[in-house]
Amino acid sequence: MKGSLESGSRLLLLLVVSNLLLCQGVVSTPVCPNGPGNCQVSLRDLFDRAVMVSHYIHDLSSEMFNEFDKRYAQGKGFITMALNSCHTSSLPTPEDKEQAQQTHHEVLMSLILGLLRSWNDPLYHLVTEVRGMKGAPDAILSRAIEIEEENKRLLEGMEMIFGQVIPGAKETEPYPVWSGLPSLQTKDEDARYSAFYNLLHCLRRDSSKIDTYLKLLNCRIIYNNNC
Amino acid sequence: MKENAASRVVFILLLFLSVSLLNGQSPPEKPKLVKCRSPGKETFTCWWEPGADGGLPTNYTLTYHKEGETLIHECPDYKTGGPNSCYFSKKHTSIWKMYVITVNAINQMGISSSDPLYVDVTYIVEPEPPANLTLELKHPEDRKPYLWIKWSPPTMTDVKSGWFIIQYEIRLKPEKATDWETHFTPKQTQLKIFNLYPGQKYLVQIRCKPDHGYWSEWSPESSIQIPNDFPVKDTSMWIFVAILSAVICLIMVWAVALKGYSMVTCILPPVPGPKIKGFDVHLLEKGKSEELLRALESQDFPPTSDCEDLLMEFIEVDDCEDQQLMPRPSKEHTEQGVKPMHLDLDSDSGRGSCDSPSLLSEKCDEPQAHPSKFHTPEGPEKLENPETNLTCLQAPQSTSGEGKIPYFLANGPKSSTWPFPQPPSLYSPRYSYHNIADVCELALGMAGTTATSLDQTDQHALKASKTIETGREGKATKQRESEGCSSKPDQDTVWPRPQDKTPLISAKPLEYVEIHKVSQDGVLALFPKQNEKFGAPEASKEYSKVSRVTDSNILVLVPDPQAQNLTLLEEPAKKAPPALP
């Protein structure tokens, strides 16, 4: 009897340890790895907030793109020019669910941060240039302004999340730089509208990427893949 | 030669064409890509519309290339999606990448290609309707009954990992109704519906939507029959409560109407006003002070009709400030002069009256303190001495047998409690004085005046004396005073007092009067001693303030500093007989 009990408990211990070892890919993060003193907002709240903001940014981007397409791009075939035009295409972002699920959360988070950072500059110029665009409808301009603000907010939140999930890691990886300003300012109206179209198209896509990755991470880290 | 060959070929082609034209055959018309949809952001399907086939059997092929690639692929699966469709499996699906898709129609005569369609899977997400919709009626005990709707996420959506975020919308209506009742749920896969109509058949449908994408189709209708006896306790209970409260209201209204005032008085009894026993307001209003006083008299008073006896008492006159006699809201008194008297009566315990009657009652039980204590301007402390010297006002002792001459001391005001400034000429600030505890009608007259002096404002005294002079009111006040003087100070303790009191300073030289007589009305007729003139004894219309009583039978009076009072004194005095025992 005793012997079986002992062996049973040993087996249990073995199972537990093996589980821990096997579950490397899934991180059940301690809420405050740096100690309770450093945590002011719980990780769950940070993620909730980040997901809300990223969802909002993607909604705004989609609406803005659709507005622009309706007003300036009908029958112009701008889409053909928009292929391969995103400045962030150099980032190795996962392209489907399997790839995303196999990507480690650290990598995913640094990708998100890279995307957010690389859009700071283009968003700023987008607002300036849309203002200068003749007859720019308020629907586009107001959304551009809003997106620029929310992007900054999301970047802040992501940096906080990153600091909590991967403590000690200093995220200083380079991010893609946008160099499309001259094309936004060109005299040729068609060329200019085409440049705007590209920018809005890429913005919609990248905001979708950020939103999807964040929602994935949220379910993985906070809800343990049980959303 | 060559020319001949070329022209021959052209001729043959033209022949061919004309032959086919004659047959009605032509290359196919351009097909048209209708839409592409992804049910779960992992696969997608595209559908096209074929054009005219040109009379010949036509094949359709779908070709595509991805953004950033040059390689052209052909559709991997033409079957799964149904006719004229192309299904892209997981292997062939990439998100965030533009697909350039073209459909080609090929027949014998030629090939026609559709316009390319640029597709990004991210933006073509449309899920299937939710699955496994179940309806269940539940009525747990002690709780409201409800319809429990359950479902599961649509197929091909990975919700658990967070790849696919989904929202649901349910709508239901009774079978015959036209409007749907819709409910939106952000995440959960169940819903409870309350407030259903019994005996109805309900139809339920559900659909869903991804976080960014298109709404699904409505699921097929599910129906459920609510049994006739389905308890809708809630409403019936409320109806019952409403009827009950309505009935109660009616009863109350009826009762109020019938009983009216008596009910109100029953619920809210009127607050009793202050009353003096035996004091009839109406008599006062009528101005019949005699009757009023008689009424007062009839309450248990020590026999005061017999005022031949002179009561000699030591009374320490405490120069309470005007506050004492100040407007205490007395309903019964409309005349000013009356007020001080009345107030005095109420607070008649001399010192105690200065502050509050309650204090007096407390102090009555205290052992007698050192009588020679000077009264400092601090009110409560002052109280103690005189209080102790007083026997309880509330417990009148009969001193009818004894002759007591009330001894009045004029004292300075109690500056602490009373705001009215004292005329310094009149009073020495250091003396406290008591109202006459028990003074018979003899004292009453004095008391009347003394009370006014007790009042410690010239004005009040003046007024009081004025009113007293007028006669009737004076009587009234005197009567009141007698009432107040029901209790008697302890003679023993009282007596040593005047000696103990050191500076018995009065502003004016003392004038002595002799008591002439005490009339039935309780008026003390006095003769100023120093006055040489002796006239016929007048009626009890002469009043003066009693300064002190000496040798147990001499009343020391102080003329009122007011001119009028002085004149009173200066009138021909009457010789007062010696104090009666």
Automatic annotation (TrEMBL), chain A:
Residues 1-28 form the signal peptide. It is found in: Secreted. Zn(2+) binds at H55, D211. One of its GO terms (molecular function) is metal ion binding. It comes from the Eukaryota. One of its GO terms (biological process) is regulation of signaling. One of its GO terms (cellular component) is extracellular region. Keywords: Disulfide bond, Hormone, Metal-binding, Secreted, Signal, Zinc. Gene3D superfamilies: 1.20.1250.10. Its main location: secreted. InterPro entries: 4_helix_cytokine-like_core, Somatotropin/Prolactin, Somatotropin_CS. The keyword Mitochondrion does not apply. Belongs to the somatotropin/prolactin family. This is Prolactin. The lineage of its organism: Eukaryota, Metazoa, Chordata, Craniata, Vertebrata. The gene is PRL.
From TrEMBL, chain B:
It is a single-pass type I membrane protein. Coiled coil: none annotated. Residues 324-384, 458-499 are annotated as: Disordered. Residues 1-24 form the signal peptide. Residues 27-127, 129-229 form the Fibronectin type-III domain. PROSITE patterns: FN3 (PS50853), HEMATOPO_REC_L_F1 (PS01352). Residues 329-349, 375-384, 469-483 have a biased composition (Basic and acidic residues). The WSXWS motif appears to be necessary for proper protein folding and thereby efficient intracellular transport and cell-surface receptor binding. Interacts with SMARCA1. Interacts with NEK3 and VAV2 and this interaction is prolactin-dependent. Belongs to the type I cytokine receptor family. Type 1 subfamily. This is Prolactin receptor. The lineage of its organism: Eukaryota, Metazoa, Chordata, Craniata, Vertebrata.
